[in-house]
Amino acid sequence: MAITTFTDEHTSPIPPSRIFKASIIDSHNLIPKLMPQAIKSIEIIQGDGSAGSIKQINFAEGSPFKCVKYRVDELNEKTFTYGYTLIEGDSLAANLEKITYEVKFEQSADGGSISKITSKYYTVGDFTLKEDEVKAGKERVLAMYKAVEAFLIQNPDAYV
């Protein structure tokens, strides 16, 4: 097994508390409304959404994937940190044991936020990740993040 790590950073004009509440805490309600063409639903199938919970993302018709399940490893509303592990689903395929994500939102000097995301891909055997597949996954996550950001800009009283 090999572990391949990627880190990304994005800036937003939205303060950490608002983007964290919208994109993490209330993702199961907000994301399917903002992106029905991509996400059919997000269900909490075990727990209450806090650490230890299991969530399932059901993708929209026509998506290359049907669904994924992930475990919430950390959810800290004070430090705006969130960790989760993809544990099941067609996006993992036979060559990936799991994918872990660590997300942290920090206050930026202009009153907005900086999101820092670390993803770790745990491969099976001597499998090597294809950069284009990782890039496609990152682009889907960024699109979700940008949809939430646009919603919060258009709705300044939401998730205050």
From TrEMBL:
One of its GO terms (cellular component) is nucleus. One of its GO terms (molecular function) is protein phosphatase inhibitor activity. The keyword Cell membrane does not apply. GO terms for biological process: abscisic acid-activated signaling pathway; defense response. Keywords: Pathogenesis-related protein, Plant defense. PROSITE patterns: PATHOGENESIS_BETVI. It holds the Pfam family Bet_v_1. Residues 3-154 form the Bet v I/Major latex protein domain. PANTHER family: MAJOR ALLERGEN PRU AR 1-LIKE (PTHR31213:SF70), OS08G0374000 PROTEIN-RELATED (PTHR31213). Belongs to the BetVI family. This is Major strawberry allergen Fra a 1-2. It comes from Sesamum radiatum (Black benniseed).
